[in-house]
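Hi everyone, sorry if this is the wrong subforum. Our group has a chain we'd like a structural model of before ordering constructs, and none of us has done structure prediction before. Sequence below.
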Amino acid sequence: MFRISFRTLGCRLNQYETDALVTQFHKAGYQVVDFSEKADVVVINTCTVTGQSDQKSRNLINHAARMNKDAVLVVTGCMADNHREQLEAARHITYVVDNERKSQVFALVDSHLKGEVVHPDALPGDRFGFEAVDKSLHTRTSVKIQDGCDQFCTYCIVPTVRGRAVSRPVDEILDNVRKVLDNGFREIVITGVNIGRYVFEGTTFEKLIERIIELPGDYRVRISSLEPEGFGPDFHHLFHHPRMTPHLHLCVQSGSDSILRKMKRMYTAGSFMEIVDQFRKSIPDFNFSTDVIVGFPGETDEDFQQTVRLVRQIGFSHIHTFRYSGRKGTSAYRMAGQVEEAVKRERSEQIRKISESGRLRYMDSMLAKRQRVLVEKVDRKKMAHGYGEHYLPVMFPTSDTGRNRFERVILERTVTGPGSPVILASSTETSHQAERIREVF
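Answer:
Right subforum, don't worry. Here is the predicted structure as tokens:
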């Protein structure tokens, strides 16, 4: 039995594709081990969205090579497209596999271990060639509905490394959902590169989601990262369905219309606010998280303050902050007005603090409310950990050690500490919870 380990960087789409590969190798009899353990095969699914992502990927590749000297080392993902020649020149990397052929990693490795040497370029390209996830590194699973992007934002390398936008056939998606539900998953995350632009033979993104939530079963659906475009004014109505989770990671990037135009974003700060207002009029406690880029070329102090005012006004529960990183091949790389790194760090720190305070405010606003938590694990203190439908981390006492199950709870109080804040809750199906919480904390 060959031992194989995986490590994934970057987006949820990468995570899904790794899980699909894990399923293939597991079904074929490979032993999936932790990345910290020695293995016969190591697969690193890289990210290249920023220079920092590239460095993290390089560090992981070098670490894996040192720890597993005789292993088959496969590097795939977006860095494999963006820095292919450099990676192929590295003697410690066995194969470099681009995104187009990532679904063929199992065939490549299995052939290699059987004595057949196949060049990755000889494998067929199929961006939707991943089978339904069974063996996963996570309790929830993703379903890929599209790949690639035609937006070509001036800062973004993704259209270059992921290719042009292509949507997966509706029947394939529905079949994938049915299979992962049969495999026991209770939460499905809809993922892709620019999922709001999904369209296949007249079926739009919204119509596709309607088809998915009509399928039978006890499960819920979460939308992954979404651009503030590509959906209609009634999109928020979908989230009243009991299978939909009231949370969106809606990418704003900047609160300055001047910077948004330079980024080639297809909305304004005002139109973004209209979307948020529309959702919260319909569902008052709807949870929004977002991405923000600081230090984009030409970003002035006033541009940055406009971003600060916007994110404070909206009250995001989390802000993923990026310091602008120039990527060769993008329009912004050649723009005048490049911002100094010290200024980027200072602005990033300001947004980070706003994000932390906004998260605590949102969590406190949810106290005394009921949530349906999907249990991911139960620790040694018999505390269950999981996420409610609003995508907030919750923990509560339990006598049931099972995971991947739903339990209804009442949110009691927010606890902060050395790690990320979490909400303590009491199960509505178990008595003496308040006393149990006092015993543990």
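For your construct planning: The mean pLDDT is 92. The first helix runs from residue 12 to 27.
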